[in-house]
Amino acid sequence: MERATEEVALLVSGIKAEVYTYYLRGERKAIEAIMFSSAQFEQDESGTPKLKKVDASYRTKMEDKAVLLAIKSLIGKAGDELEVKLETLDNLPAEDFEQLQKSLPGNQPKKK
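The structure assignment produced for this chain is given below.
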């Protein structure tokens, strides 16, 4: 079964992104796993787990993963297909990345 998509025209770069309208359950789990894997715990004398350290970059990694998993395809200004990978996202203008984030599944207003 093919998932529904919508086209998002990025305002600064002129790239067109085809974005899924919903995440699959496995995609949601993969995004959340980044947060859980960023925390390190240790046990105190009583055996109670205590938070030892948190990798503060988890938020950015989650944002990147959420956008990567939501994009079906990217078409450049010249009509060429761009690879959907982190390097491509990192080379987008900040405004375009933010526009993609706003178009992610779950960030759209509910239709009545």
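Interim note for the steering committee: The mean pLDDT is 91. Strands lie at 5-9, 16-20, 39-43, 49-54, 71-75, 81-82.
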